[in-house]
Amino acid sequence: MSEQDEYELVDSETVFEGRIITVHRDTVRMSDDSTSIREVVDHQGAVVILALDDEGRVVLVNQYRHPVRVRLDELPAGLLDVEGEPAVDAARRELREETGLEADTWHVLLDLYSSPGFSNEASRVFLARGLRPVDREGFQATGEELTMTVEREPLAKAVHRALSGSITNAASVAGLLAAVHGRATDWRDLRPADAPWPARPQA
Predict the structure, then answer these.
(1) CA dist 119 to 21, 26, 41, 132, 183, Å?
(2) Please, what sign has the CA dihedral across residues 80, 83, 84, 85?
(3) What is the DSSP string of the chain?
(4) What is the pLDDT of residue 203?
(5) Are 203 and 84 in contact (CB under 8 A)?
(6) Using 50, 70 and 90 to split pLDDT, how confident is the model at 3?
(7) Is 0.85 topped by the overall pTM?
(8) Residue 145 annotated to the active site
(9) How confident is the model over 85-142, as pLDDT tens digits?
(10) Whose CA is closest to 52, among 201, 187, 146, 191?
(11) Which listed residue (17, 145, 151, 153) is catalytic?
């Protein structure tokens, strides 16, 4: 018997259903046969792109994040909100729309559960290299994207900023640190861009 078999979903009630998230109140039977209530946030999942140019600079976007009421420097990212769209295609689309860039080579850098204590949100961080400018194909910025800015800075500087607390987006920090390891090992641990992703939330 696996550890998962020790935990049974007894009941699930939808508390809230929104555009991006749904909140459930789940009753779970624990390993000692008691039951506990868990509030769970269902999330569509996301892709994150660590775009690294030939000079070793990483592409960062800066945008306002309303829940924390500040602007953050982050890696380009976006929701998996197009039904049936492969994750790497979503990553290509987000990189193009947010930065006006395309990449020749794509690999999986790492997979993350963002907050597994209360959400099934999963993020796949891609490494994109061989960058070139491209037309945004009619993309119209809305909301926070209207004031989004795009910059490049050396990977080492971005990592230093993450360690000093000026880059705090979790997936961005993880991606930056993974890129340091990846570059040090000549990228030998990378998975192909279409590698299986069992943790991706299902619609």
Answers:
(1) 10, 12, 4, 36, 31
(2) negative
(3) --SGGG-EEEEEEEEEE-SSEEEEEEEEE-TTS-EEEEEEEEE--EEEEEEE-TTSEEEEEEEEEGGGTEEEEE--EEE--STT--HHHHHHHHHHHHHSEEEEEEEEEEEEES-TTTB--EEEEEEEEEEEE---TT----GGGGG-EEEEEEHHHHHHHHHHTS---HHHHHHHHHHHHHHHTTTTTPEETT---TTSPP-
(4) 60
(5) no
(6) low
(7) yes
(8) yes
(9) 999 999 999 999 999 999 999 999 999 999 999 999 999 999 999 999 998 776 777 7
(10) 187
(11) 145
pLDDT tens by residue, 153-201: 999 999 999 999 999 999 999 999 999 999 999 999 999 999 999 999 8
**Cα→Cα distances 173→30, 113, 166, 180, Å:** 34, 14, 10, 11
Asked whether 28 and 38 are in contact (CB, 8 A), the reply is yes
Structure tokens belonging to residue 94 = 């987000």
